[in-house]
Amino acid sequence: MHSPTIKHTTGFFLSLIAAMLWGMLPVALKELLVGMDAITIVWYRFLVAGVVLFAWLTLQRKLPQVLQRGAQIKWFFLFASIGLCINYFLFSYSLNFVNGETSEAVIQLTTLFLILGGVFVYKEPFFAVQKVGTLLIMVGLLLFFNDRLSDLVSLENRETLGVIIVFFAAVTWTVYALLQKQLLNSFSSVQILFLIYVFSSVVLLPFISPLSLFKLTEMQFYLLLFCCLNTIVAYGCFAEALNCWDASKVSAVLALAPLFTIGSLKLVVFFQPDYAFSDRLGMLSLFGALLLVVGSVLTALMPVFQQYRASKRAALVDPV
Questions:
Q1: Cα distances (Å, whole numbers) of residue 28 to 101, 187, 189, 202
Q2: Could you read off the pLDDT of 180-190 as tens digits, one per residue?
Q3: Residue 30 phi, psi (nearest 5)
Q4: Which residue, 138, 232, 283, 299, is the most exposed by fewest CB within 10 angstroms?
Q5: How many angstroms from the chain centroid is the CA of residue 114?
Q6: b/e map 163-175, b = 16+ CB within 10 Å
Q7: What are phi and psi of 171, to 5 degrees?
Q8: 0.85 cut: is pTM over it?
Q9: Helix H or strand E encompassing 45
Q10: CB distance 18 to 254 below 8 Å
């Protein structure tokens, strides 16, 4: 089992950088989708990240030897790759129907799904604090959509379709995350991502329009570059944070991503009041987003609470 070397300050800032980059990502993707389709954007992100990780792992002499592994590991890799590939596409594609704030709010369901996946797949306990966190996530979503609930009931509504797509993006990411938990026993997180990026780059080839790169405006090109670098830097910070800090604390900081999305769009609207790609959230919706974050943080930090309670009990039993 992986055991990180604890460096609280480093782990916190690496996690915060990852949360900030993932929070800003839907804002950039929304603009980029005007000039390039979602599946081509995803392909370029996988390709650039795969090339960079190939160079890094080659220099480190740590290229993964997956073909030498057993059939079970290969199947785990296949389904993890499919899960993350579909997640990237669905999340990007959903932004054709919803704005950044909505996509980032709904994708927070990954926290809940991962907890439930741990309960049903790995038989992990489901504690009272996690139940409170789950309740806050559900109430937060209801408040976030408080003025759009009647519209979301209609399956013909574009926003409803977008929310459904993000929902399935959260499901597929959970599949990837649960399988990665098994793969980490045999490979590092960087090796796993490299193999997934290579697989996805090859699988998506028949569906892309790579020449659309030359039709992008200068701003759209820089946004694509940002999205590609975002994939490398955010996942790099995330992986390194796990080497410095407890996974539960990293997850708690990553739950702040929706706040960075909302903050980024508020800043854009401040300078461009007529900006089209923002939900212009009211106070009740903002409060719902805050509850989403709090609920996600509570469920993520549960292992820390349990460890603290266990150490307190041990101290009472053996005060020496």
A1: 12, 32, 26, 25
A2: 888 888 888 88
A3: -60, -45
A4: 283
A5: 12
A6: bbbbeebbbbbbb
A7: -65, -45
A8: yes
A9: helix 38-60
A10: yes
